[in-house]
């Protein structure tokens, strides 16, 4: 190439409209596949609660995870923009009440947008407030936590709590599977051949 011949200019290629549409479709397909797979994961159901001043917050969750025995830690995820997440940060404490099989109405109540905020305790759902953190009176298990750390989780915030108190009550838990609430089915014992005894 002679000194007088201009060098070819690099041209930045911009994605065509069709490429953007295909990329969006792939992202949507991936999200749909993710949701479908996640719905196959059966979980228990809990109500996450915290108090900040006179404001009490409650939200139905299925993301409870036991993390550690030493120290005693659990985690729970809530929407990053949730007022409950901000309240838990401000107060430094929260509780999770694990719901029993007969508490689907409670789960639905606190899953509804805007239903999980009150001044003082929720009158229609009995709670106790022995340690400064509201706990549902009726539950099959509960965890009273002090905020250990807060982790980013995409569009959610993960609240890691150090468990300072916990307890259980006899009864079966409420389950969540395929977008619906369920109860445990107790099967009769079977022999090694699969026949019922």
Automatic annotation (TrEMBL):
UniProt entry tagged with the keyword DNA damage: no
Start and end residues of each stretch annotated as Disordered: 1-27
Compositional bias per record (Basic and acidic residues), positions renumbered to this chain: 10-23
Keyword terms: Oxidoreductase
Flavin reductase like domain segment(s): 38-183
InterPro entries tied to this protein: Flavin_Rdtase-like_dom (IPR002563), NADH-dep_flavin_reductase (IPR050268), Split_barrel_FMN-bd (IPR012349)
Top-level taxonomic group: Bacteria
Family, per entry: Belongs to the non-flavoprotein flavin reductase family.
Name listed for the protein in its UniProt record: Flavin reductase family protein
Organism the protein comes from: Streptomyces yaizuensis
């Amino acid at each position: 190439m002679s000194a007088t011949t201009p060098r070819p200019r690099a041209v930045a290629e911009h994605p065509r409209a069709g490429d953007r549409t295909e990329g969006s479709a792939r992202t949507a397909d991936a999200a749909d596949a993710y949701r479908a797979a996640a719905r196959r994961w059966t979980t228990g159901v809990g109500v996450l609660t915290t108090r900040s001043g006179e404001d009490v917050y409650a939200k139905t969750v299925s993301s409870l995870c036991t993390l550690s025995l030493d120290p005693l830690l659990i985690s729970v995820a809530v929407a990053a923009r949730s007022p409950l997440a901000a309240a838990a940060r401000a107060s430094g404490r929260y509780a999770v009440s694990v719901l029993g099989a007969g508490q689907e109405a409670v789960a639905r109540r606190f899953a509804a947008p805007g239903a999980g905020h009150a001044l003082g305790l929720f009158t229609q759902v009995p709670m106790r407030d022995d340690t400064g953190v509201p706990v549902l009176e009726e539950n099959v298990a509960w965890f009273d936590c002090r905020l250990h750390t807060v982790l980013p989780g995409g569009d959610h915030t993960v609240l890691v709590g150090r468990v300072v108190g916990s307890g259980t009550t006899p009864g079966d838990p409420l389950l969540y599977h395929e977008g619906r609430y369920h109860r445990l089915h107790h099967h009769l014992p079977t022999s090694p051949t699969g026949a019922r005894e």
